[in-house]
Amino acid sequence: MKKFFFLLLAIGLFVLPMSTNAQLKIGPKVGISMSSFDYSRSGGDISSKTGITAGILCEYISPWHGLGFDVALMYESRRANWEKDIDISYDNDKINVKNMEYINIPVNLKWKYSLPIIAVFATAGPQFSFLADKSIVSGRTTEIKRNSVEVGFNLGLGIELFKALQISAGHYWATNPILETSIGEWKARTWTVGAAYLF
């Protein structure tokens, strides 16, 4: 965790001098998320629980029709507390899934329409997620594969107040599973509400 925050600080110190250009902004972002993990077979979905996310957001908006992009480096805790007996014919044959910690890098195209005090924006793009906690699964771990890298897609909408405070909501869905067994796999689906303050 300490390494992650030192990395955020280093990126902030490097990019902050560039933000003197009004079109390029950077700042902290925090939020809450609701994650579920959809199982490819019936009866194995992991239900949503509230998690947290925090990191740094960098935005560039061109003068051409408000088009641009944003890139972020985010820590995310996807909360889960799930236990399943994978084979009732054996004792102690349960899989336990605990909270999952990720480092996320979303790279979004961004469109913004600005008014004097408020602006509205939409984002869309891929996200690359790296599993930071390798001990998310206990039990018969030989029966389950943990993928350390997850790739997915984001869609989001938001408003900006006073050209600084951005409030957004988005949906993310993974294209590859984070957990796999011989008979099925889990893919993440996450709703996020966040706030960023850009300088």
Description of the structure:
7% of the residues lie in helices and 62% in strands. It is mainly beta and 199 residues long. It has one domain: Porin. The strands form two sheets. An eight-stranded antiparallel β-barrel has the order 1-2-3-6-7-10-11-13. A hairpin with a 3-residue loop joins strand 6 (100-114) and strand 7 (118-131). It is elongated.
Please name the defining characteristics of this protein.
199 residues; eight-stranded antiparallel beta barrel; mainly beta; 13 strands; elongated; Porin; three-stranded antiparallel sheet
Morphology: elongated
Mean pLDDT: 80
Largest sheet: 8 strands, antiparallel, barrel
Strand content: over 45%
Quick overview:
The protein is built from one helix and 13 strands; from the N terminus they run αβββββββββββββ. The chain is mainly beta and 199 residues long.
How does the SSE layout of this entry go?
Blueprint: H1 2-15, E1 24-39, E2 46-61, E3 67-78, E4 82-85, E5 94-97, E6 100-114, E7 118-131, E8 137-139, E9 145-146, E10 149-161, E11 165-174, E12 179-180, E13 185-197
Antiparallel strand pairs: 1-2, 1-13, 2-3, 3-6, 4-5, 5-8, 6-7, 7-10, 9-12, 10-11, 11-13, 12-13
